[in-house]
C-alpha cells in the first residue's frame, strides 16, 4: 500500500535522521510547559537571593525618557518577598493580560467552530478552486485557518489529502501542503486572530517586567504578516509541486476520496447567510469607528482610533466570529435554541483548561521576574555584552530567529516559549534600539518555521495517523523528511523578507516600526 518507493525513502541510518532521533529523545524528556514555568519561578526565587546578597545592580540609559536609571536585585527569600508571593498570586493570575484576551476571543471562535461555519468555509474555499490553483489555495487556506486555532489541523489537513486525491494527485502531497500552511505559516495571516493579542499581551507583560513603560497593540505585526501570507503561499506551492510531489511519485494506493467532504446544500445556504451577516457587521463596525465622531472612539484620547484598537479589538474579534457563526447555525440547523449556543461556547472554554493552568504559573514567573529586577539586570548586562563584542543590529536578529526556531523543536507552545523568552529578549532588544514589535516579529518567524518538523508539536502524531490512512508505512521519520523542505524554505524565505523590510525601514504594523524613535 505504501506509495513511496524504497529507493526514495530516507535512510534510517543517515546522520540527519540520527540528529532528529536525538532531538526527539531529548524533547520527550522535557517536562510539561507548566512544570517548566514552575521550575523557572523557583529558580528566580533562588537566584534573586543570590543576586541580592551579591549586590548586583546596573546603570542604564532609558531611551524613552532620556534619563539615567539604576536598579538593584531584590530578593524573594525574605519576609517581604514571601508576603509578595502569597498576597499577589491571585492578582498575578487574573491580571495576566493574555488570559482575558484569549478567553474572550475564543467565545466567538467557539460559536463559529461549533456551528460548523469554519469547517464549511474551509471546504468551500478548497473544493471550488480550479485544478491549476488547488495547491496554492490549499496552502493559503491553511495559513488563514490559524485564526481558528486547531480547526486547520483537524479539518484542512485531511481535506487537503482528499482534494488532491480527487484531482488524481498524491494525497500525502495535499496533506503536506495543508500542514505546511496551517503549522509552518502559523503566524502569517491577512486577518487578526487569537495569536496576535496573545503574543502582544505577553510582550506587554515582558515590558512591564523590564521596567519599560510602553505597550504594543495586537496589530503590531499586521503589515508584515499580511505580506508573509502571500510569501508562505508561494513558497509552499513551489515546494509542494517541485520537491515534495515529485519525490512521492504517483499514488498507487487503493484509497478513494470520500464524497462526504462535499459542501451540502444546507451548508451552502448557511455560508451565504453568514457571509451577508459578516458584511453587515463589518459595515456597522466601520460606521462606529472611522467617522470623526464615531461612537466607539474615545473623544479625549490623543489617538481615539488607537485607543479603541487597544481596548476594543479583542471583543471585536469575538463578534467577528460570533455573528456569522450564529447566523450560519440558525440557517444550517446546527443551532436550534439558546442551549446549543451556550454548549458551543462551553465546549470552546473546556478546551482551554490546560491553557488556564499554564497561565497561572506563567503569570507568577513573569511577575517574580519583574519584582526581583532580574529581567532588567539580565537585559542590560546582555545588551552591554553584545555591544562590547559588536554583535548587534541585523546579525543579532538573525541569530535570535534561529534560536527561537531551535527552541521550538522542544517546546511546541508559541505562548509558552514567548512567555519564557520575552522577559529576557524584549528588554534586551529595547536597550539595543529595537522596538518590542520588531522583536516579537522576529520571534514569530522562528517559532513558525520549525513547527512542521517537531515530533513534540501537539498535532504531529495526529498528522502521522492521517497519513497512515493513505500509506500504512508512514511514520515520524517519513513525515519529518516530507516536511523538512518546507521548513528550510520557509525559514530562508521569511528571513529574507524580514531583511528586506529591515533595510527599507517600512512599518511592520499600524504605528509599529523596527527601530525606537530617539
From TrEMBL:
<feature type="transmembrane region" description="Helical">
    <location>
        <begin position="34"/>
        <end position="56"/>
    </location>
</feature>
<dbReference type="Pfam" id="PF03806">
    <property type="entry name" value="ABG_transport"/>
</dbReference>
<feature type="transmembrane region" description="Helical">
    <location>
        <begin position="172"/>
        <end position="192"/>
    </location>
</feature>
<feature type="transmembrane region" description="Helical">
    <location>
        <begin position="132"/>
        <end position="165"/>
    </location>
</feature>
<feature type="transmembrane region" description="Helical">
    <location>
        <begin position="418"/>
        <end position="435"/>
    </location>
</feature>
<feature type="transmembrane region" description="Helical">
    <location>
        <begin position="308"/>
        <end position="331"/>
    </location>
</feature>
<feature type="transmembrane region" description="Helical">
    <location>
        <begin position="389"/>
        <end position="411"/>
    </location>
</feature>
<dbReference type="InterPro" id="IPR004697">
    <property type="entry name" value="AbgT"/>
</dbReference>
<feature type="transmembrane region" description="Helical">
    <location>
        <begin position="352"/>
        <end position="369"/>
    </location>
</feature>
<keyword id="KW-0472">Membrane</keyword>
<keyword id="KW-0812">Transmembrane</keyword>
<feature type="transmembrane region" description="Helical">
    <location>
        <begin position="479"/>
        <end position="504"/>
    </location>
</feature>
<keyword id="KW-1133">Transmembrane helix</keyword>
<feature type="transmembrane region" description="Helical">
    <location>
        <begin position="270"/>
        <end position="288"/>
    </location>
</feature>
<protein>
    <submittedName>
        <fullName>AbgT family transporter</fullName>
    </submittedName>
</protein>
<feature type="transmembrane region" description="Helical">
    <location>
        <begin position="222"/>
        <end position="240"/>
    </location>
</feature>
<feature type="transmembrane region" description="Helical">
    <location>
        <begin position="93"/>
        <end position="112"/>
    </location>
</feature>
<feature type="transmembrane region" description="Helical">
    <location>
        <begin position="441"/>
        <end position="467"/>
    </location>
</feature>
